């Protein structure tokens, strides 16, 4: 063995890692190998499901995954507390998770979102693509935003709920500002405790709270 070969030791796990990567690429047949490779190794590093498609999935009309609250929560975690994000950066994160670009573009268009995207507005509209009603959309948003759902019902600050509900009602166009203010005042005065948090059960199972 030459001196150069001794200095360039190959990591023991590298051959097997490359073998699995190559098999996954052949099985998936990604249209953009570089983009898919970035998704593959990002998922591998983060311990997330690998973007590997079975044959029947490759033959479907779309290779994109379906947006779920769990995936949206991962995306929210990647935001690391940012209030705004550049649209190109957000699109890149969206693509790396395998989410459909047409849904991203639809959210941007519906919300009239521009270069600097307000994350809570984007998240609210993304949740609305999964929720049939405003109440169900807010339930999903609470589940995504809550950091303590393992200890009970998902909870978020009332101020965040107030922003989301007002924005969703405005985008919906069928809930009057008077109705929004009445419900927010009731929730704040009759439901919210000293911790300033609202639980999903506060507005889903309460017959006095009608968000539609």
UniProtKB/TrEMBL annotation:
SUPFAM superfamilies: Dimerization-anchoring domain of cAMP-dependent PK regulatory subunit. GO terms for biological process: sperm capacitation. Belongs to the ropporin family. Important for male fertility. With ROPN1L, involved in fibrous sheath integrity and sperm motility, plays a role in PKA-dependent signaling processes required for spermatozoa capacitation. Keywords: Cell projection, Cilium, Flagellum, Phosphoprotein, Ubl conjugation. The lineage of its organism: Eukaryota, Metazoa, Chordata, Craniata, Vertebrata. It is found in: Cell projection, Cilium, Flagellum. GO terms for cellular component: cytoplasm; motile cilium. Signal peptide: none annotated. Its main location: other. It comes from Geotrypetes seraphini. This is Ropporin-1-like.
């Amino acid at each position: 063995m030459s001196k150069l070969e001794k200095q360039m030791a190959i990591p023991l796990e590298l051959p097997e890692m490359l073998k699995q990567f190559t098999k996954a690429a052949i099985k998936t047949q990604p249209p953009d190998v570089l983009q898919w490779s970035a998704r593959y190794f990002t998922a591998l590093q983060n311990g997330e499901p690998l973007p590997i498609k079975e044959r029947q999935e490759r033959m479907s009309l779309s290779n994109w995954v379906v947006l779920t609250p769990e995936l949206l929560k991962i995306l929210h975690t990647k935001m690391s507390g940012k209030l705004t994000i550049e649209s190109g950066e957000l699109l890149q994160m969206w693509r790396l998770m395998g989410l459909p670009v047409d849904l991203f573009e639809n959210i941007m268009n519906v919300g009239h979102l521009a270069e600097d995207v307000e994350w809570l507005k984007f998240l609210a509209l993304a949740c609305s693509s999964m929720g049939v009603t405003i109440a169900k959309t807010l339930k999903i948003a609470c589940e995504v935003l809550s950091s303590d759902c393992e200890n009970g019902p998902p909870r978020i600050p009332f101020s965040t709920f107030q922003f989301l509900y007002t924005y969703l009602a405005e985008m919906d166009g069928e809930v009057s500002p008077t109705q929004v203010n009445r419900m927010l005042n009731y929730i704040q005065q009759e439901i919210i405790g000293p911790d300033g948090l609202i639980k999903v059960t506060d507005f889903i199972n309460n017959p006095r709270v009608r968000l539609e």
